[in-house]
From TrEMBL:
Lineage per the UniProt record: Eukaryota, Viridiplantae, Streptophyta, Embryophyta, Tracheophyta
Domain spans labelled Reverse transcriptase/retrotransposon-derived protein RNase H-like: 25-75
Source organism (scientific name): Nymphaea colorata
Protein name: Reverse transcriptase/retrotransposon-derived protein RNase H-like domain-containing protein
Amino acid sequence: RFISNLAMRCEPFNQLLRKGIKFEWGFECQQSFERIKKYLINPPILKPPTLGRPLLLYITVNESACGGFLAQYEEG
């Protein structure tokens, strides 16, 4: 399944996987886990674009991840 901004959502888990770091599931990990669960329960609706309507390209970058998606406004 597509998960918007997955790299940023999983950042607390990535910290746990680093070599030499003690595995400690804290508040930040639990909060990220709960947010991902909530997102998966109510996923966005994905469908092909409507021809002739403008597309929007969203891009995000930071020091640990980059991502983007293509969107189109839906009337109604």
